[in-house]
Amino acid sequence: MRKLLLIFMVGLFGLSYAQKIPAALKTGFSKEALKQKLEDEDGKTITIQEILDQHKGKVLVIDFWAGWCRDCLQALPKAEILEKNNPNVDFVFLSLERSKEGFDKSLVRFNMKEKDNYWFASGWKNDFNNYVDLNWIPRYMVIDQKSAIAKYYAISPDDPEIQQTIDKLLK
């Protein structure tokens, strides 16, 4: 009986924290979201707007992840395949590590040092993540050449809609 109760509780707990598709799929960012600050590997502050400006004119895939996230780590090989198959697409990795030390360690541990990485020093709850309805990671977004959101919500890098969106944008 105890085992059955434990299985029920774990199942209930797991369901309450599963990703939920947002009710509205947004196509742009709010002013507050664009002002959100992150830090790069050197601890230098940068805003979402500045990141988007750096990639303007290119298709951009945003990958939300963390080294403590088992689902994110399982998705990393698939994300690498997506990146390898799309050499004309830029990729940015936004980390939800709990500390700068954790961010630095994860970049080394998971061979992410050569990638475009930023860390939410403000934590999970911030203007950008709240605006994009970030309720779980990993999460992927595709941004078009004009910095508009082309694919708002994907939970796996092998979601066929990511590649379809990229292909459509690159035509």
UniProtKB/TrEMBL annotation:
Give the keywords, sorted. Isomerase
* InterPro entries per UniProt: Thioredoxin-like_fold, Thioredoxin-like_sf, Thioredoxin_domain, Thioredoxin_ResA/DsbE_sf
- A Pfam family of this chain: Thioredoxin_8
Determine the domain of life of the protein's source.
Bacteria
Thioredoxin domain location, by residue?
27-171
Keyword check for Membrane: no
Q: Which GO terms describe its molecular function?
A: isomerase activity
Q: What is this protein called?
A: Alkyl hydroperoxide reductase
Q: Which organism is it from?
A: Chryseobacterium contaminans
Q: What is the lineage of its organism?
A: Bacteria, Pseudomonadati, Bacteroidota, Flavobacteriia, Flavobacteriales
